[in-house]
Amino acid sequence: MISAARASEILDNAGNKRLLVVGDLMLDRYINGSVSRISPEAPVPVVHVVDDNAVPGGAANVALNIQSMGAQARMVGLVGSDADGETLRSMLEDQGIETEGVLGCDALRTTVKTRVVAERQQVVRFDQEGTPELVAGQVDLLCGRMEELFRDVAGVIIEDYGKGVIQNALVERVVALAREKAIPVGYDPKDDHAVSVSGITLATPNFKEACEAAGESVYDPLVDPATDPRLERAATALMKKWSPDLLAITLGPHGMYLCRPGSDPVLLPTRAREVFDVSGAGDTVIATSLLALAAGADPTEAASLANYAAGVVCAKAGTATCSREELIGAIAQDA
Fold first, then answer.
1. 226: domain CATH number?
2. Catalytic residue among 82, 283, 298, 334
3. Is 283 a catalytic residue?
């Protein structure tokens, strides 16, 4: 367990750090209302809309978490040349995020996930997006600007949501540039999208993503991390496959499973006092842990901070972030 004093020291050091976030950008839209009857037209609830709002999602939420911790995020990704793309870019700029690496493309449609929520329960979600193949065809535009965007950054995060931006050529370029500059690289994978990556600082798959990447079965839920052999087997396989300095497998209500070369695995229990919504928790984990590493934390301290931060966002509705003050408060409350 990390102390509030040590957490404050790390976050103070993080205040002058700039992280590069490379990945799939999206807009998360929420339509909120109430349900009091079933439609006479079909057996579906009728939602009386009270309000709607939108927040940056996907890799953009990673950048928001970095900003919330008091550091600086520089965003790299693609949006469509459409109204949603302009909305997303404006939202990022309003939060102080650097968007010179956010490129608009006429051939693309900005990814938008719209969730209809009634009485705190999601009724339906509908997605608007282009095909990953079409997005992948535009990735050379990002590679062409990558070296310039790496100036004065203390670390880089590869955030894969399977929408097409994270391709092998881009990942190889990111890792090579990070190695040249001797800065940490974090990788947050997508379970159904295989990418060739090795020699990274940090990987943060969830249990399902870890099993998918390691060739383990994902059909049975994780009940007890202490007795499920898939967890150890997946971790062993991924340590060989990705060669990370730290592998942090997030386990939802079971906490986090940490692996480091030459050390025994460690199971960190969850710090969430109430798990309301896990949306965006993975974004918070990769943002907090990589920022902590860039600020001088050791791997165990970085994972502990991320575990607390994930507990904070799991108690919030929708895609959310954890602020520096909320993180320190959560740690102090546990003392």
1. 3.40.1190.20
2. 283
3. yes
